[in-house]
Design brief:
The chain is built from 10 helices and 16 strands. By secondary structure, the chain is an alpha+beta fold. It has one domain: Glutamine Phosphoribosylpyrophosphate, subunit 1, domain 1. The strands form 3 sheets. Strands 7-6-5-9-8-4-14-15 form an 8-stranded mixed sheet. A 5-stranded mixed sheet has the order 10-11-12-13-16. It has a 3-stranded antiparallel sheet with strand order 1-2-3. The structure holds N-hydroxy-L-asparagine. N-hydroxy-L-asparagine binds next to strand 11.
């Protein structure tokens, strides 16, 4: 179906918007405003832009991103700065400073970022630099590459002015030392994942960007890289369609190229919620899937500003900031047994 027929886009003031090439392009009057309402002509549902969603309960991060958007900042700045809030938060033990280390005691970060033009940048196995998402953005903007890893990523960050620092806090060090007593590696559903952040935002013009940042799974093997820096797995943005971001056991997300899958399902006409559910279905319906032992969750947004989230197990949540309301929304989930 022609999407222009499918969506009617109007300003809050009642002034009509010119659709032009962009589905949600806005005229001069409305570009001065910070808000925009989209009406889905199929079911009459309304969505208001801008909007920000993020994995887990990260209201300060979504608030920061919304602040950027409401000040007229660009959507890429919004997701970067939103993620930076959690990277700097030492109490979040799955992202940035304070992240739980690998089994050797090294905190290693994975992050990526993607803009409305399909540009992307990523860092994997980055050590000693808190704002991995900002290094990922530098990779995107200032190098001919998409991903830098390990020592090369760190040296690149330092060359760009990032200050190296020890990311292992006393609290995380103590927990790692306690873990070492038994040294059993087992992903714990919803525990080591908490506060890992994937963020998607749409500005008032309907332009989308996304970012993802994590210290990965606690007590992973040295050198392990998860889904979060892998474009298409941890994050995917297609400004024509929508965007998705993943959290949970990265190995399972990579095996199904999860975020790209969610966006492609939306391209085929599924709502963000349906797309997230089908992507989880691809994991749990595999022959011999041991999904009972791990968590994966997706959040997604489409070009109309509709959102969805779904996980394998209970207690995954999404933070959503839209229309002045910044709220944590519990996700529906597969495993109801
Ligand atoms: C990983 N997907 O490294 C990350 C972990 C995560 O919420 O997202 N936790 O596998």
């Amino acid at each position: 179906m022609n999407r222009r027929k499918f969506i009617k886009n109007t300003a809050l003031t009642g002034a009509g918007l010119t659709l032009g090439n962009s589905l949600m392009g806005c005229d001069e009057k409305t570009s001065e405003k910070t808000k925009n309402t989209i009406i889905n002509s199929e079911n009459g549902s309304k969505t208001s832009l801008p909007l920000v969603i993020a994995t887990w309960h990260v209201k300060e991060a979504t608030a920061k991103a919304m602040e950027v958007l409401q000040a007229g900042g660009n959507v890429l700045d919004a997701v970067e700065q939103g993620c930076m809030v959690e990277e700097a938060n030492e109490n979040g033990q799955s992202v940035g400073k304070g992240g739980l280390p690998d089994r050797d005691g090294n905190v290693t970060l994975d992050a990526c970022i993607m803009d409305k033009n399909g540009n992307c940048g990523a860092v994997a196995y980055l050590q000693d630099i808190t704002h991995a998402v900002s290094v990922a953005r530098k990779v995107m903007e200032d190098t001919p590459h998409v991903m830098l890893a390990g020592e090369g990523a760190k040296q690149f960050a330092i060359s760009q002015g990032f200050e190296p620092e020890d990311l292992l806090t006393e609290t995380s060090k103590k927990e790692w030392e306690e873990w070492k007593v038994e040294a059993k590696y087992k992903p714990i559903i919803n525990i080591e994942n908490h506060d890992t952040i994937g963020m998607l935002a749409i500005d008032k013009n309907g332009d989308i960007s996304g970012a993802c940042t994590t210290s990965g799974l606690a007590y992973k093997m040295g050198g392990r890289v998860g889904d979060s820096p892998i474009i298409g797995s941890g994050l995917f943005v297609d400004n024509e369609i929508g965007a998705a971001v993943a959290t949970g056991l990265g190995e399972e997300v990579v095996k199904t190229v999860g975020s790209f899958l969610v966006v492609e399902l939306m391209r085929q006409g599924k709502s963000p919620q349906e797309a997230c559910e089908e992507a989880i279905g691809r994991i749990v319906n595999k022959p011999n899937s041991n999904y009972k032992d791990f968590q994966v969750g997706y959040i997604a947004v489409n070009k109309k500003g509709e959102t969805g989230s779904y996980s394998i197990h209970q207690w995954f949540s999404m933070t959503k900031f839209q229309n002045g309301v910044n709220e944590q929304i519990q996700s529906d989930f597969f495993n109801k047994s």
